[in-house]
């Protein structure tokens, strides 16, 4: 799989030919620090040949103003800025591909698909951030470092997940914004009702999204439980600061784990209780063993898959807050919009810092029927607003 992200810069005043040369030169320099991305995946699927084959960088002309793309309510309309039709898919041996899109209005979008085998969301944000730094100052010296034996247990028989061929997704990705004043109100409400001291933005937002999405996916309001189906939320956790000793944010790799909360019956559809359960499970993450991969591989070896289940609805939340996505600057200032590609994942939430800071921007992926219910949920709309334009 690839992590696929695009950055939109409405007014750059940059000559197309000049921008091509500048971005190509800075990308080449970036790859000297993030060298695995310039290699190729070996046939075994679990190792990389760091042969310096490079990364494809294409330039395309998009014959419309950028605003026409950004005002579309769903994220799949923005796939034009990615270098492939299915940005989340495996890129046939390439570990990174990139595209620069030039709009008629003079705006530029930088889109890229980089392999999740090499690194997680933190690694991806650092890659694009350092590409921006080197575009502004080619003499800069980023300091990423790839962790290996110091973190991951070595095995003669590594557990490898084969490439999964996904059908064209029918899921919708829609953006919502939680303004800082609404978040503060929500924090005070939850602290009082749940007993959780100083609830985090991730806790209160992910719990609310989960509750509302659970009801939406069930296709009925919370007062009707004739066909109740249990569900779970898997919250991805960045382990860099949780390890002993901790790692810096410059550490590259899939340094992640996570924890579950579940809705087993109608009594569990309780927002303050979900926040309390998230806090409880987060505190249980045990850094004395290798939780980064042990729970995931244990589950897979038992034949469980986190993406499809007939007996339980699985939801996933990835918090990218504190990562510098909205600070990535190629010399044109900060992006007006950061967008992720619609992928084969249903019931998925991305959380980001919003442009102005303090608030939270979320991207919710649901099927069309569930999204129609979710986006009208009164409890959600009390604290969040859908956003569709620049």
Into which percent range does the helicity of residues fall? 25-40%
Major sheet, described briefly? 7 strands, mixed
Number of helices: 9
Question: Which structural category do the helix and sheet elements fall into?
Answer: alpha/beta
- Uncertain ranges: 220-224, 293-297, 299-305
Beta-strand residue percentage: 15-25%
Overall mean pLDDT stands at 84
Q: What Rg do the Cα atoms give?
A: 21 Å
Distance between the termini: 29 Å
Question: In which order are the strands of the major sheet placed?
Answer: 11-9-12-14-15-8-16
- Give the beta-strand count: 16
- Shape category: globular
Order of helices and strands: EHEEEHEEHEEHHEEEHHEEEEHHE
Summarize the structure in short:
By secondary structure, the protein is of the alpha/beta class. The chain has helices at 16-33, 66-70, 121-136, 180-194, 201-218, 271-283, 294-301, 368-374, 378-383, and strands at 2-9, 40-41, 48-49, 56-62, 96-103, 108-115, 145-146, 171-178, 231-238, 251-252, 256-263, 313-319, 337-340, 348-353, 360-367, 385-387. The longest helix is centred in the N-terminal third of the chain and has 18 residues, at 16-33.
How would you describe the overall organization of this protein?
With 390 residues, this protein is of the alpha/beta class. The chain is 27% helix and 23% strand. It has helices spanning 16-33, 66-70, 121-136, 180-194, 201-218, 271-283, 294-301, 368-374, 378-383; strands at 2-9, 40-41, 48-49, 56-62, 96-103, 108-115, 145-146, 171-178, 231-238, 251-252, 256-263, 313-319, 337-340, 348-353, 360-367, 385-387. A seven-stranded mixed beta sheet has the order 11-9-12-14-15-8-16. It has a five-stranded mixed beta sheet with strand order 4-5-6-1-13, with helices on one face. Strands 2-3 form a two-stranded antiparallel sheet. A hairpin with a 4-residue loop joins strand 5 and strand 6. Helix 4 (180-194) crosses helix 6 (271-283). The longest helix is centred in the N-terminal third of the chain and has 18 residues, at 16-33. The chain starts with a strand and ends with a strand.
